[in-house]
Protein backbone atom coordinates (compact mmCIF):
# COMPACT_ATOMS: atom_id res chain seq x y z
CA UNK A 1 0.00 0.00 0.00
CA UNK A 2 1.30 3.46 -0.87
CA UNK A 3 1.64 5.69 2.19
CA UNK A 4 2.93 8.87 0.57
CA UNK A 5 0.31 11.50 -0.17
CA UNK A 6 -0.56 15.14 0.31
CA UNK A 7 2.04 17.36 1.94
CA UNK A 8 4.66 14.61 2.35
CA UNK A 9 4.60 13.76 -1.36
CA UNK A 10 4.71 17.48 -2.17
CA UNK A 11 7.84 17.86 -0.05
CA UNK A 12 9.50 14.90 -1.77
CA UNK A 13 8.68 16.28 -5.20
CA UNK A 14 9.79 19.80 -4.24
CA UNK A 15 13.22 18.59 -3.20
CA UNK A 16 13.42 16.15 -6.10
CA UNK A 17 12.84 18.93 -8.65
CA UNK A 18 15.10 21.52 -6.98
CA UNK A 19 17.78 22.59 -9.46
CA UNK A 20 20.10 23.57 -6.61
CA UNK A 21 19.90 20.14 -4.93
CA UNK A 22 21.32 17.15 -6.75
CA UNK A 23 19.77 13.70 -6.48
CA UNK A 24 22.95 12.61 -4.68
CA UNK A 25 22.50 15.41 -2.11
CA UNK A 26 18.84 14.50 -1.61
CA UNK A 27 19.77 10.82 -1.18
CA UNK A 28 22.47 11.73 1.33
CA UNK A 29 19.96 13.76 3.35
CA UNK A 30 17.47 10.88 3.41
CA UNK A 31 20.00 8.28 4.52
CA UNK A 32 21.15 10.64 7.30
CA UNK A 33 17.77 11.87 8.58
CA UNK A 34 15.71 8.85 7.41
CA UNK A 35 12.58 10.86 6.57
CA UNK A 36 11.52 14.02 4.78
CA UNK A 37 9.99 15.72 7.83
CA UNK A 38 13.28 15.61 9.73
CA UNK A 39 15.07 17.09 6.72
CA UNK A 40 12.62 19.99 6.51
CA UNK A 41 12.79 20.62 10.28
CA UNK A 42 16.58 20.30 10.59
CA UNK A 43 18.52 23.33 11.80
CA UNK A 44 20.84 25.26 9.50
CA UNK A 45 23.79 23.96 11.52
CA UNK A 46 22.72 20.33 10.99
CA UNK A 47 22.33 20.86 7.25
CA UNK A 48 25.69 22.65 6.98
CA UNK A 49 27.31 19.62 8.59
CA UNK A 50 26.25 17.73 5.45
CA UNK A 51 28.05 20.31 3.29
CA UNK A 52 24.92 22.05 2.04
CA UNK A 53 25.24 25.69 1.03
CA UNK A 54 23.04 28.45 2.43
CA UNK A 55 21.33 28.68 -0.95
CA UNK A 56 20.46 24.96 -0.81
CA UNK A 57 19.21 25.31 2.78
CA UNK A 58 16.88 28.17 1.79
CA UNK A 59 15.60 26.08 -1.13
CA UNK A 60 14.87 23.12 1.17
CA UNK A 61 12.84 25.40 3.43
CA UNK A 62 10.76 26.76 0.55
CA UNK A 63 6.98 26.29 0.55
CA UNK A 64 5.96 23.58 -1.98
CA UNK A 65 3.05 25.79 -3.05
CA UNK A 66 5.47 28.61 -3.94
CA UNK A 67 8.02 26.34 -5.60
CA UNK A 68 9.48 27.52 -8.90
CA UNK A 69 9.04 23.91 -10.06
CA UNK A 70 5.33 23.85 -9.26
CA UNK A 71 4.47 22.86 -12.85
CA UNK A 72 6.70 19.76 -12.69
CA UNK A 73 5.31 18.86 -9.25
CA UNK A 74 1.71 19.14 -10.43
CA UNK A 75 2.54 17.14 -13.56
CA UNK A 76 3.90 14.32 -11.38
CA UNK A 77 0.85 14.40 -9.11
CA UNK A 78 -1.48 14.30 -12.09
CA UNK A 79 0.43 11.36 -13.55
CA UNK A 80 0.32 9.50 -10.23
CA UNK A 81 -3.44 9.97 -10.01
CA UNK A 82 -3.92 7.75 -13.09
CA UNK A 83 -4.58 3.99 -12.68
CA UNK A 84 -1.42 1.87 -12.25
CA UNK A 85 0.83 4.94 -11.91
CA UNK A 86 2.63 5.40 -8.59
CA UNK A 87 5.39 7.45 -6.99
CA UNK A 88 7.13 5.31 -4.37
CA UNK A 89 9.20 7.40 -1.96
CA UNK A 90 12.12 6.40 0.24
CA UNK A 91 9.87 6.09 3.31
CA UNK A 92 7.18 4.12 1.50
CA UNK A 93 6.52 0.56 2.64
CA UNK A 94 6.70 -0.51 -1.01
CA UNK A 95 10.23 0.87 -1.48
CA UNK A 96 12.58 -2.07 -2.31
CA UNK A 97 14.14 -3.05 1.05
CA UNK A 98 17.59 -3.94 -0.29
CA UNK A 99 17.76 -0.73 -2.32
CA UNK A 100 17.76 1.28 0.91
CA UNK A 101 21.07 -0.38 1.81
CA UNK A 102 23.09 1.00 -1.12
CA UNK A 103 25.20 4.14 -0.80
CA UNK A 104 23.01 6.40 -2.97
CA UNK A 105 19.44 5.07 -2.90
CA UNK A 106 17.08 6.99 -5.18
CA UNK A 107 14.86 9.36 -3.17
CA UNK A 108 11.81 8.24 -5.13
CA UNK A 109 10.79 5.84 -7.87
CA UNK A 110 8.23 6.30 -10.61
CA UNK A 111 6.37 3.00 -10.95
CA UNK A 112 3.90 1.63 -13.47
CA UNK A 113 2.12 -1.60 -12.55
CA UNK A 114 1.98 -3.14 -9.08
CA UNK A 115 4.33 -1.36 -6.63
CA UNK A 116 3.98 -4.14 -4.06
CA UNK A 117 6.12 -6.47 -6.19
CA UNK A 118 9.08 -4.20 -5.37
CA UNK A 119 9.17 -5.73 -1.88
CA UNK A 120 9.68 -9.28 -3.19
CA UNK A 121 13.08 -11.00 -3.25
CA UNK A 122 14.62 -10.17 -6.64
CA UNK A 123 17.29 -11.73 -8.81
CA UNK A 124 18.80 -9.65 -11.63
CA UNK A 125 19.44 -11.26 -15.02
CA UNK A 126 21.37 -9.10 -17.50
CA UNK A 127 23.54 -9.40 -20.57
CA UNK A 128 24.35 -8.38 -24.11
CA UNK A 129 21.92 -6.71 -26.47
CA UNK A 130 23.56 -8.61 -29.34
CA UNK A 131 23.19 -11.98 -27.68
CA UNK A 132 23.66 -15.34 -29.37
CA UNK A 133 20.74 -17.73 -29.77
CA UNK A 134 22.13 -19.94 -27.01
CA UNK A 135 22.55 -16.91 -24.75
CA UNK A 136 18.95 -15.83 -25.31
CA UNK A 137 17.77 -19.37 -24.67
CA UNK A 138 19.80 -19.64 -21.45
CA UNK A 139 18.47 -16.31 -20.19
CA UNK A 140 14.88 -17.40 -20.77
CA UNK A 141 15.34 -20.84 -19.19
CA UNK A 142 17.08 -19.58 -16.08
CA UNK A 143 14.72 -16.63 -15.61
CA UNK A 144 11.74 -18.96 -15.95
CA UNK A 145 13.12 -21.31 -13.31
CA UNK A 146 14.04 -18.45 -10.94
CA UNK A 147 10.49 -17.17 -11.26
CA UNK A 148 9.10 -20.66 -10.66
CA UNK A 149 11.01 -20.74 -7.37
CA UNK A 150 9.37 -17.53 -6.16
CA UNK A 151 12.00 -14.97 -7.14
CA UNK A 152 11.09 -11.83 -9.05
CA UNK A 153 13.38 -11.33 -12.07
CA UNK A 154 14.79 -7.83 -12.55
CA UNK A 155 16.32 -6.60 -15.79
CA UNK A 156 16.61 -3.47 -17.93
CA UNK A 157 14.13 -4.01 -20.81
CA UNK A 158 16.96 -3.80 -23.36
CA UNK A 159 17.04 -5.97 -26.48
CA UNK A 160 18.73 -9.36 -26.26
CA UNK A 161 19.31 -10.93 -22.83
CA UNK A 162 17.14 -8.44 -20.91
CA UNK A 163 14.15 -9.13 -23.14
CA UNK A 164 14.53 -12.89 -22.76
CA UNK A 165 14.90 -12.56 -18.99
CA UNK A 166 11.57 -10.72 -18.77
CA UNK A 167 9.89 -13.22 -21.08
CA UNK A 168 11.27 -16.16 -19.12
CA UNK A 169 10.01 -14.74 -15.83
CA UNK A 170 6.54 -14.32 -17.28
CA UNK A 171 6.66 -17.96 -18.41
CA UNK A 172 7.32 -18.96 -14.79
CA UNK A 173 5.23 -17.52 -11.95
CA UNK A 174 5.07 -14.24 -13.82
CA UNK A 175 6.71 -11.55 -11.64
CA UNK A 176 9.27 -9.36 -13.36
CA UNK A 177 10.49 -5.80 -12.88
CA UNK A 178 11.96 -3.63 -15.64
CA UNK A 179 14.23 -0.79 -14.51
CA UNK A 180 14.59 1.97 -17.11
CA UNK A 181 17.26 4.53 -17.93
CA UNK A 182 14.49 6.84 -19.17
CA UNK A 183 11.26 8.16 -17.73
CA UNK A 184 8.66 5.42 -17.21
CA UNK A 185 6.50 7.17 -19.80
CA UNK A 186 9.25 6.88 -22.41
CA UNK A 187 9.78 3.17 -23.14
CA UNK A 188 13.20 2.42 -24.62
CA UNK A 189 13.86 0.67 -26.91
CA UNK A 190 10.63 1.43 -28.72
CA UNK A 191 10.42 -2.13 -30.08
CA UNK A 192 9.71 -3.35 -26.54
CA UNK A 193 6.48 -1.37 -26.13
CA UNK A 194 4.36 -4.52 -26.20
CA UNK A 195 6.67 -6.28 -23.72
CA UNK A 196 6.48 -3.26 -21.43
CA UNK A 197 2.69 -3.46 -21.44
CA UNK A 198 2.82 -7.13 -20.42
CA UNK A 199 5.25 -6.29 -17.62
CA UNK A 200 2.90 -3.57 -16.32
CA UNK A 201 0.20 -6.23 -16.03
CA UNK A 202 2.38 -8.87 -14.35
CA UNK A 203 4.94 -6.83 -12.44
CA UNK A 204 6.27 -3.30 -12.56
CA UNK A 205 8.21 -0.80 -14.64
CA UNK A 206 10.47 1.44 -12.55
CA UNK A 207 12.61 4.53 -13.05
CA UNK A 208 14.30 7.10 -10.83
CA UNK A 209 14.31 9.61 -13.69
CA UNK A 210 11.66 12.30 -14.15
CA UNK A 211 8.76 11.80 -16.53
CA UNK A 212 9.80 12.33 -20.13
CA UNK A 213 13.51 11.69 -19.45
CA UNK A 214 15.36 10.60 -22.59
CA UNK A 215 17.76 7.62 -22.96
CA UNK A 216 20.96 9.56 -22.22
CA UNK A 217 24.20 7.58 -21.92
CA UNK A 218 24.83 8.77 -18.35
CA UNK A 219 21.46 7.42 -17.21
CA UNK A 220 22.29 3.76 -17.72
CA UNK A 221 25.03 3.28 -15.10
CA UNK A 222 22.61 4.86 -12.60
CA UNK A 223 19.89 2.49 -13.84
CA UNK A 224 22.28 -0.43 -13.41
CA UNK A 225 22.96 0.40 -9.73
CA UNK A 226 19.22 0.10 -9.07
CA UNK A 227 19.03 -3.26 -10.87
CA UNK A 228 21.83 -4.66 -8.72
CA UNK A 229 20.89 -2.73 -5.58
CA UNK A 230 17.36 -4.08 -5.30
CA UNK A 231 18.46 -7.67 -6.02
CA UNK A 232 19.92 -10.50 -3.96
CA UNK A 233 22.31 -11.22 -6.80
CA UNK A 234 23.14 -10.52 -10.44
CA UNK A 235 23.49 -13.12 -13.20
CA UNK A 236 25.39 -12.06 -16.32
CA UNK A 237 24.39 -14.42 -19.13
CA UNK A 238 26.50 -13.00 -21.96
CA UNK A 239 28.69 -9.90 -22.05
CA UNK A 240 31.66 -8.47 -23.92
CA UNK A 241 34.70 -7.29 -21.96
CA UNK A 242 33.51 -3.68 -22.20
CA UNK A 243 29.80 -3.65 -21.50
CA UNK A 244 27.08 -2.25 -19.28
CA UNK A 245 26.50 -5.73 -17.87
CA UNK A 246 29.99 -5.79 -16.39
CA UNK A 247 29.29 -2.38 -14.85
CA UNK A 248 26.20 -3.91 -13.23
CA UNK A 249 28.31 -6.81 -11.94
CA UNK A 250 30.92 -4.42 -10.52
CA UNK A 251 28.20 -2.40 -8.79
CA UNK A 252 26.76 -5.62 -7.37
CA UNK A 253 30.15 -6.52 -5.87
CA UNK A 254 30.42 -3.03 -4.34
CA UNK A 255 26.92 -3.47 -2.88
CA UNK A 256 27.89 -6.87 -1.41
CA UNK A 257 25.54 -8.77 -3.70
CA UNK A 258 26.21 -12.23 -5.15
CA UNK A 259 27.53 -12.23 -8.71
CA UNK A 260 26.98 -15.11 -11.14
CA UNK A 261 28.01 -15.71 -14.75
CA UNK A 262 27.26 -18.25 -17.47
CA UNK A 263 30.26 -19.72 -19.31
CA UNK A 264 30.18 -20.01 -23.07
CA UNK A 265 32.13 -20.87 -26.21
CA UNK A 266 35.65 -19.42 -26.26
CA UNK A 267 35.06 -18.33 -29.85
CA UNK A 268 32.16 -16.09 -28.86
CA UNK A 269 33.36 -12.59 -27.91
CA UNK A 270 30.08 -12.11 -26.00
CA UNK A 271 31.19 -14.68 -23.42
CA UNK A 272 34.57 -13.09 -22.63
CA UNK A 273 33.07 -10.74 -20.08
CA UNK A 274 31.46 -13.70 -18.31
CA UNK A 275 34.73 -15.64 -18.32
CA UNK A 276 36.50 -12.63 -16.78
CA UNK A 277 33.86 -12.44 -14.04
CA UNK A 278 34.30 -16.15 -13.29
CA UNK A 279 38.09 -15.73 -13.12
CA UNK A 280 37.53 -12.81 -10.73
CA UNK A 281 35.37 -14.90 -8.40
CA UNK A 282 31.84 -14.87 -9.80
CA UNK A 283 29.93 -18.14 -9.38
CA UNK A 284 29.76 -20.25 -12.54
CA UNK A 285 26.15 -20.99 -13.46
CA UNK A 286 24.87 -23.87 -15.59
CA UNK A 287 21.32 -23.88 -14.25
CA UNK A 288 18.98 -22.28 -11.74
CA UNK A 289 20.03 -24.70 -8.99
CA UNK A 290 23.54 -23.19 -8.98
CA UNK A 291 22.04 -19.80 -8.10
CA UNK A 292 19.58 -21.10 -5.51
CA UNK A 293 22.35 -22.97 -3.70
CA UNK A 294 24.35 -19.76 -3.25
CA UNK A 295 21.32 -17.68 -2.27
CA UNK A 296 19.98 -20.21 0.24
CA UNK A 297 21.49 -18.45 3.30
CA UNK A 298 19.77 -15.21 2.26
CA UNK A 299 16.40 -16.97 2.11
CA UNK A 300 16.55 -17.51 5.88
CA UNK A 301 16.52 -13.75 6.45
CA UNK A 302 13.28 -12.68 8.20
CA UNK A 303 12.88 -10.12 5.40
CA UNK A 304 11.96 -12.90 2.96
CA UNK A 305 10.18 -15.31 5.32
CA UNK A 306 7.03 -16.58 3.63
CA UNK A 307 8.00 -15.00 0.31
CA UNK A 308 9.64 -18.08 -1.20
CA UNK A 309 7.47 -21.12 -1.62
CA UNK A 310 8.27 -24.81 -1.79
CA UNK A 311 10.31 -25.19 -4.95
CA UNK A 312 9.30 -28.77 -5.73
CA UNK A 313 5.60 -27.91 -5.57
CA UNK A 314 6.16 -24.80 -7.67
CA UNK A 315 8.06 -26.83 -10.26
CA UNK A 316 5.23 -29.36 -10.42
CA UNK A 317 2.51 -26.74 -10.83
CA UNK A 318 4.54 -24.65 -13.26
CA UNK A 319 5.29 -27.64 -15.48
CA UNK A 320 1.64 -28.78 -15.35
CA UNK A 321 0.48 -25.33 -16.49
CA UNK A 322 3.11 -25.02 -19.23
CA UNK A 323 2.31 -28.44 -20.71
CA UNK A 324 -1.46 -27.95 -20.72
CA UNK A 325 -2.54 -28.25 -24.42
CA UNK A 326 -4.66 -25.14 -23.99
CA UNK A 327 -1.51 -23.11 -23.25
CA UNK A 328 -0.22 -23.58 -26.83
CA UNK A 329 -1.32 -21.40 -29.74
CA UNK A 330 -2.08 -22.80 -33.18
CA UNK A 331 1.48 -22.49 -34.53
CA UNK A 332 3.02 -23.98 -31.39
CA UNK A 333 0.65 -26.94 -31.63
CA UNK A 334 1.63 -27.38 -35.30
CA UNK A 335 5.36 -27.48 -34.46
CA UNK A 336 4.77 -29.92 -31.59
CA UNK A 337 2.85 -32.18 -33.95
CA UNK A 338 5.66 -32.04 -36.52
CA UNK A 339 8.26 -32.96 -33.88
CA UNK A 340 6.14 -35.96 -32.93
CA UNK A 341 7.24 -38.62 -30.49
CA UNK A 342 10.77 -38.83 -31.87
CA UNK A 343 13.28 -36.00 -32.33
CA UNK A 344 13.45 -33.63 -35.26
CA UNK A 345 16.18 -31.48 -36.80
CA UNK A 346 15.67 -27.76 -37.36
CA UNK A 347 16.07 -28.09 -41.15
CA UNK A 348 13.26 -30.66 -41.28
CA UNK A 349 10.97 -28.43 -39.22
CA UNK A 350 11.73 -25.48 -41.50
CA UNK A 351 10.65 -27.47 -44.56
CA UNK A 352 7.63 -29.23 -43.10
CA UNK A 353 6.21 -26.22 -41.22
CA UNK A 354 6.61 -23.85 -44.22
CA UNK A 355 7.39 -21.08 -41.73
CA UNK A 356 10.03 -18.37 -42.09
CA UNK A 357 13.26 -19.08 -40.18
CA UNK A 358 12.85 -16.13 -37.78
CA UNK A 359 9.24 -17.09 -37.08
CA UNK A 360 10.12 -20.75 -36.45
CA UNK A 361 12.99 -19.74 -34.14
CA UNK A 362 10.59 -17.63 -32.09
CA UNK A 363 8.10 -20.49 -31.77
CA UNK A 364 10.80 -22.98 -30.76
CA UNK A 365 12.19 -20.59 -28.16
CA UNK A 366 8.70 -20.10 -26.74
CA UNK A 367 8.13 -23.86 -26.54
CA UNK A 368 11.49 -24.32 -24.81
CA UNK A 369 10.59 -21.62 -22.27
CA UNK A 370 7.40 -23.53 -21.48
CA UNK A 371 9.38 -26.72 -20.98
CA UNK A 372 7.49 -28.41 -23.82
CA UNK A 373 10.58 -29.28 -25.88
CA UNK A 374 14.32 -29.60 -25.41
CA UNK A 375 17.29 -29.25 -27.76
CA UNK A 376 20.06 -31.82 -27.79
CA UNK A 377 22.72 -32.29 -30.44
CA UNK A 378 20.83 -30.07 -32.87
CA UNK A 379 17.56 -32.03 -32.59
CA UNK A 380 14.32 -31.02 -30.86
CA UNK A 381 12.39 -33.49 -28.72
CA UNK A 382 9.10 -33.22 -26.86
CA UNK A 383 9.26 -33.36 -23.08
From TrEMBL:
Residues 87-295 form the Smf/DprA SLOG domain. It comes from SAR86 cluster bacterium. NCBIfam families: dprA (TIGR00732). The gene is dprA. Belongs to the DprA/Smf family. One of its GO terms (biological process) is DNA-mediated transformation. This is DNA-protecting protein DprA. Residues 329-378 form the DprA winged helix domain.
